[in-house]
Amino acid sequence: MISLDGAMGEGGGQVLRTALSLSMCTGQPLRIQNIRANRPKPGLLRQHLTAVNAACAVCAGSATGAELGSHELTFLPDAIRAGDYDFAIGSAGSTTLVLQTILPALMTASGPSSVVLSGGTHNTHAPSVHFLQHAFLPLIERMGPTIRLDLERHGFYPAGGGQIHVHIEPTEQLKPTELLLPSPITGRRAIASVAGLSGSIAKRELAIVADHLGWEPDCLHIEQLADEVGPGNILSIEIQREDVTEVFTGFGERGVSAERVASNTVRDVQRYLGSNVPVWHYLADQLMLPLALAGGGAFRTGPLSKHAQTNVHVLEAFLGSCIQAAEIDGASVEIRAQPRR
Amino acid sequence: MASRLPKRTPTVVIGVLGTTLDVGKGPHRWERWRPTVSLCQHEDFVVDRLELLHDANATALAETIVEDIASVSPETSVVRHVIELADPWDFEEVYGVLHEFAAKYPFDTDREDYLIHITTGTHVVQICNFLLTEARYFPARLIQTSPPKRSSSSPGSYSIIDLDLSKYDRLASRFEREHVDAIASLKSGIETRNAAFNRLIEQIEHVAVRTRDPLLITGPTGAGKSKLAGRIYELRKHRRLVDGPLVEVNCATLRGDGAMSTLFGHKKGAFTGATSDRPGLLRSANGGLLFLDEIGELGLDEQAMLLRAVEEGRFLPLGADTEVQSKFQLIAGTNRDLAAQVQRGAFREDLFARINLWTFKLPGLRDRLEDIEPNIEHELERFARERGQLIRFSKEARAQFLRFATGSDATWTGNFRDLGAALTRMATLAPGGRISEDVVSDEMKRLAESWRGVVRTDDTELEAVLGAERLAGVDLFDQVQLACVIKICRESRSMSDAGRKLFAASRARRSSTNDSDRIRKYLAKFDLTWEGIQ
C-alpha cells in the first residue's frame, strides 16, 4: 500500500491523478490522505471523482472514500482491461485530465482501447486537446504506442458538451526517448478559435501574435466554430521543430481582453524561444511519468516548477528513485529517467 | 464496465423554472447566471435528479434548460412537470398547486435526499415553497443559489438551509435555555425534586407550546391544577401563541339556569331577568385560554354546547338566533374519575373523548414528599414578596415541621393548598420574623385538627359534591353515610329505584312508604338534590 499526503507540494488534483495512474500501472494499492487540504473547497470534487471512477473502470479496481468532499481515498487496482469506455464529466470538467489519468494504463494494456470522453475539451488549468494532439501524443507514439485523438466537438467552460474520441494501440514496453537540445524550427502556427463570439476577438489576438513575434500572415489562422458550442475562445501557438512541437495555449475569459489573452501567451512563447531547451513546462510535467515507466530517456527543460517537483515525489513513492534532475545551468535542467529496479 | 464506487443517497432537487432568471438564448446565455442551470454546475455538489416545475407557456424555455443541464451535468436526470399557474402572484392558487404537487409526489426519504430550490419563481412561489417545507409537506431542506460575486461564468454559490433548527448547535443551545426556562416557569420557579413530577412537567411543557388542542389536568384538590393552568397560559403568552386573555371558572360554582348564561352568554330578554346582553365566558376567552376547573360538575346541556364550541369554535348564546364565534384553547381540570362518570352517563362520552387527548395527572402532596421542602422555601419567598417581610424558621422549628410534614400522620388532604395555608399562618404568627418551635407545634395541632374531620379515603367524590369547605363541617359519621347514599343514587335509574335499594329492609316490614321522599329529604339536609348529584 502506497500512502501519500494529498497536501504535499501544490496539493491539488495532480497528486491524485498521477497516483491513480501509477497505482494502475504498477498494481500497487494506494491511500491518499488530506486530499486537497487547505483549498477553499477541500476534498474530492466532481472532476476528481470522475477520474477515480474512470480508474476503477479501466483496472476493475475498487475505491473507498470516493465521495464528494472526501478527504481520504483508498484505491485497490486489479488487472488493466483494454476495451471500449465512455466517460461523461460534469460541470464542464476537463476530458483531457481524465484521459491523462487512464492513458498510461491503456497504452501498456494487452489490447487496443477506444475511449469516448465528454465534457470540457479546452479548460484552463488543463492541457488542451490541441496540445495533446500536437505536442504530447507525437512524443508518446515515439515511445511505442499508437494513439489517435479526434476532437469531435469543442467543449468550453461553462457550457461543456464537448467530446473527444481516443483510439489507443498499446505497446508492451515503453521505449525511452531523448530531447536534449532544441532542434531547428520547421514551422510556426497560431490558431485563434472562437465559438459564439465575434470573429474580431480572433483577429485582435492574432494581431498581437503578428506584432510581438513578427510572424507572417500565412502562420496565422482563424477558426470560427459553430455558435452552439460557444461561447469560447482559444489561442493556440505552435512552435514546430524537427523532433518536437511545443504548444502554448491562451484561454479567453469573460472580463479579460483579447489583447491581454494573446500577450500573456506570446510572453510564454518568447521565453521558450529565448531558452536553450526543447521542452517547456507543461510538456515537461506530462513527459516525466511515461519516461519513468519506460525506465530511461531524458529531456531538458526550464527550472522545475513546484508542480513538476510534486510529480517527482509521487513517482518516487511508487517507483523508487526513478528520476534524476540535474541542473545544466541557471536556466535549464536535465531530467533523466533511471532503469526501474 | 464495472466500477465499484460506493452508492450514496441520491440528491433530488425540486424547483420551479425561473421565467425571468433562467431565461437565455444563443451562446450568450452561458454568460448569464441561470439559477436552475447553476444548481448542476457546482464542482462539489451533484444533483442526481431535478424535478422541474413549469407552466405550459414556458415549455420551450424548460427544454433549453433540460438540454443545458444534460451538457453540464451528465449525472443529472431532469423530470419536467407541467403545472397550471394562471397567476403566480396569487398566494392561494400557488399554495394550492404546490401543495397538490407535494401531496402526490412519491417522497422516499429513506432512499433519497430532497432539496427545495427557492431561488426561482415569484416571491409568492418562494414563500409557498418555504411554508410547505416548514410544514414538512416537502420533507426536504431548502437550497438557495446565488450569482457569482464578480461578473464571471462561474456557477456562483449555493447554501443548504435545514429548517430543523435543532440541527444548529448555537440555536439548539438557545432552545435548550428556553426549554429550561419554560419548565422552571411551569414549576413556578420551585426546584422540585420528585422525579415523576418533573417528568410530568417536561411533558406538559412539550405539549403546551405545540398544541392548541384541549388539555385535561386531573388530580386531587389542592394539587395545583389551577396554578398550572395559569402557568401554561403565561408560557403560551410569552411565546406569542395566544393573544387573548386567560378566563378561569370553577364549574362547581355554576348551577342551574345561570350556568348556560355564564358560559355561553345570552341575548337581552332571553329569560326573566336578562335585562341586557351578556357575552359569556367563552366569548371573553376568544383568542385566549379557558380554564374550566371541576369540569365534571358541568351539566349535560352545558357539556353538549361546550363540545360544539371546542370543535367548531361556534355556539349559540341563550335566546340568540345566530351562532357566535370564539376560538380558545380549553384546559379542563377535574378531581373526579371522568371515565367512571361517562360510564354512569353523568358525563358525555364525546366531550370526554375530545378533552382526554392530552391528560396529565398531577400527584398529591403525599406522593411528592421530597417537594415539601422546596415548596416551603417558595411559600416563604412569596410571603416576603407580598408582605414585604422576610420570614425564617429556627433550625429546630424547621426540622420539627419537616418531620411532621413528611410523617405518616400528615395526610395533607388539601395538598399544596394546605401547605400554603400552613406557611401563611406560621409566617403571620412568627414572632420577630422567626418561626419558632412553638409556632410549629400550634400549626401541627391545627393541621391535624382540620384533617381529622375529613375522611381520607379515595372518595374524593364527596368533596367534589360538597366542596372542601362544607365537607370539613360534616362529621365523619355522616360522611360515610352520605358517600354511600350518593353512590347508590348514582347507580340507580330513578329516585324510587334508589329507594328500593336503600330501604329494602324497612320496605319488607312496612306495607307502603315514600322512599323517594326520604331520599330527597336526606339529601336536602346537605343542600343536595337528586339532579345535583348525578
General description of the model:
- By secondary structure, chain A is an alpha/beta fold.
- Chain A is 33% helix and 28% strand.
- Chain A has eight helices and 16 strands.
- In chain A, strands 1-2-4-3 form a four-stranded mixed β-sheet, with helices on one face. Chain A has a four-stranded mixed β-sheet with strand order 5-6-8-7, covered by helices on one side. A four-stranded mixed β-sheet of chain A has the order 9-14-16-15, covered by helices on one side.
- The longest helix of chain A is centred in the last third of the chain and has 17 residues.
- The radius of gyration of chain A is 19 Å and the shape is globular.
- With 534 residues, chain B is an alpha/beta fold.
- Helices cover 46% and strands 13% of the residues of chain B.
- Chain B is elongated and about 110 Å long.
- The interface between A and B is large, with 48 and 32 residues.
Strand and helix layout:
The complex is a heterodimer of chains A (341) and B (534).
Chain A: E1 2-5, H1 13-26, E2 30-33, H2 46-58, E3 62-64, E4 73-76, E5 84-88, H3 95-106, E6 113-119, H4 129-142, E7 146-153, E8 162-169, E9 178-179, E10 185-195, H5 199-213, E11 220-225, E12 232-241, E13 245-251, H6 258-274, H7 281-294, E14 298-301, H8 306-319, E15 323-329, E16 332-337
Parallel strand pairs in A: 1-2, 5-6, 9-14, 10-11
Antiparallel strand pairs in A: 2-4, 3-4, 6-8, 7-8, 10-12, 12-13, 14-16, 15-16
Chain B: E1 11-16, H1 35-38, E2 49-55, H2 59-72, E3 77-83, H3 91-104, E4 113-117, H4 123-134, E5 141-146, E6 157-161, H5 169-186, H6 195-208, E7 215-218, H7 225-238, E8 246-250, H8 257-264, H9 281-284, E9 289-293, H10 300-312, E10 314-315, E11 324-325, E12 329-334, H11 338-344, H12 349-355, E13 358-361, H13 372-387, E14 392-393, H14 395-406, H15 415-429, E15 434-435, H16 437-452, H17 461-466, H18 468-472, H19 476-491, H20 495-502, H21 504-509, H22 515-525, H23 530-533
Parallel strand pairs in B: 1-2, 1-4, 2-3, 4-5, 7-12, 7-13, 8-9, 9-12, 14-15
Antiparallel strand pairs in B: 5-6, 10-11
Helix pairs in contact in B: 3-4, 13-15, 14-16, 15-16, 19-20, 20-22
